[in-house]
Amino acid sequence: MSEGGCCAPSSGRGGDLQTTLSRARVGSTDGMVRLEGGTFLMGSEDPFAYPADGEGPVRQVEVAPFWIDACAVSNAAFSRFVEETVHVTEAERFGWSFVFAGLLPDDFPPTQAVAQAPWWRKVEGADWRCPEGPQSDLGGRLDHPVIHVSWNDAQAFCIWAGKRLPTEAEWELAARGGLEGKVFPWGDELEPGGEHRTNVWQGTFPTENTLEDGYYGTAPVAAFPPNGFGLHHAVGNVWEWCEDWFHPSFHVTGPRHDPTGPTTGSARVMRGGSYLCHPSYCYRFRVAARSSNTPDSSTGNLGFRCARDE
Questions:
Q1: What gap in Å lies between CA 124 and CA 112, rounded to an integer?
Q2: What is the pTM of this model?
Q3: Looking at per-residue confidence, does 12 or 2 come out higher?
Q4: How far apart are CA 198 and CA 226, in angstroms?
Q5: Most exposed among 25, 120, 278, 286, judged by the fewest C-beta atoms under 10 Å?
Q6: In the chain, where do the E strands start and end?
Q7: Inter-residue contact 251 to 260 (CB < 8 Å)
Q8: Cα–Cα distance measured from residue 269 to residue 167, given in angstroms and rounded to the nearest whole number
């Protein structure tokens, strides 16, 4: 089992997205769920965890009440944001983004592969409007999660919406759906009673996807039943950006009340795994699993959902 797998590759593009939007706007709670917060057990000591990710130790964390989106931000919602703000995403500014090779047509022009993960291809013209490059569009996918958005792009959306990204602690509390110490938001079995609860890879990665859950690539943001708190796709479908800077061990000695991660870093936390995850090589669609990427990176399996204070 490798430590790379489906995780979104880093672009290394550099640059710092600037925005003139203001946080003065107070966002609507439509489409959000209110959580009382409280104390919960965060992290895991799962034998399948990757040591460098820093999932453990299991620790008691307290979170204040907050709101969080029931679903990841959709293409339709992101379209409204772009129409109002004329925001240009980093993938558009740089002219390319990472696309899973299996989603490209056989006659697609040659592309540059990522050395450690050749299933990822650098595709010129790939962005949120054209998920697989210039020959693709959002037809039939307005209710799918927006992808090819960097952490900086997600921040700009949140500011426009009068919201913010969830902290890593808020994200995990919400994703657990009220269950303590479970592997997934619905329990310990991936497919309880043979029922699919999220969109992940079935078959042999990266050569065969049996499509047992019905999807190759992203699924609609509410395609599967919600967890106990009303969140859809808390794991699987697309990775989700969190507010925190990533560090593998800061949380061991860091604050346990509304933790926000270290004050600086080089990569931001992303959570939940994606449609490319599979237990055989990238078992990061467990609710405690974590990974990271640079704030300017964008890929075809990375999106976000918003949070809001009381």
A1: 10
A2: 0.94
A3: 12
A4: 10
A5: 25
A6: 32-35, 38-42, 59-63, 66-69, 96-100, 112-114, 117-124, 203-204, 208-209, 239-245, 268-271, 290-293, 302-303, 307-308
A7: no
A8: 9
| DSSP-based three-state secondary structure for 85 | helix
Q: Would you mind telling me the total number of residues written for the chain in this entry?
A: 310
pLDDT average, residue stretch 74-84: 98
- Measure the CA dihedral 111/271/241/178, to 10°: 150
Asked whether the predicted pLDDT for residue 189 surpasses 90, the reply is: yes
Q: Domain boundaries in the chain?
A: 32-74+162-308
For residue 8, what pLDDT is reported? Answer: 74
pLDDT value at residue 1? 32
- Fold classification of 32-74+162-308 is paralog of FGE (formylglycine-generating enzyme) (3.90.1580)
Contact 32, 308 (CB under 8 A): yes
